[in-house]
TrEMBL record:
Lineage of the organism: Eukaryota, Viridiplantae, Streptophyta, Embryophyta, Tracheophyta
GO BP terms in the entry: brassinosteroid biosynthetic process; brassinosteroid homeostasis; secondary metabolite biosynthetic process; sterol metabolic process
Protein name in UniProt: Cytochrome p450
Similarity field: Belongs to the cytochrome P450 family.
GO function terms (MF aspect): heme binding; iron ion binding; monooxygenase activity; oxidoreductase activity, acting on paired donors, with incorporation or reduction of molecular oxygen
Superkingdom as given in the UniProt entry: Eukaryota
Pfam families the record matches: p450
Amino acid sequence: MVCPPAIHLNPEKYHDPLSFNPWRWKGQGSITTSKHFMPFGGGMRLCAGSEYEKLQMSVVLHFLLTKYRWTKIKGGEIKQTLGVVFPNGLHIKVKEVNHEQE
Ligand code: HEM
């Protein structure tokens, strides 16, 4: 049995693991499951919804990032527990982008 958060937040494998840095996987190809990266589990218990979920997250993120602008108001401090939590929340203001005015 493995604990994915313990693996994903291992500073011996990932430099500064709590910082938001999607580029840490740049150039590594499309790794879905490895012994150092298993967001959807692995092996016989691999998440049955993993491909569907990756498509859904791509579509949702695409629209959230292209149609809206986000401004941080307060919070956002990360605390490492068994997972990653925001003890004081993360307050953001979301504004729809008006592409005609840009
Ligand atoms: C971001 C979203 C999701 C994440 C991070 C996630 C993660 C996981 C993980 C880590 C496991 C393995 C649990 C274990 O080893 O016991 C799992 C199993 C599973 N997931 Fe997901 N999941 C997600 C979304 C979904 C969705 C949308 C569905 C269904 C439409 C789904 C269906 C399942 C099923 C049926 C299993 C059990 C597979 C088995 O034991 O044979 N998951 N998921």
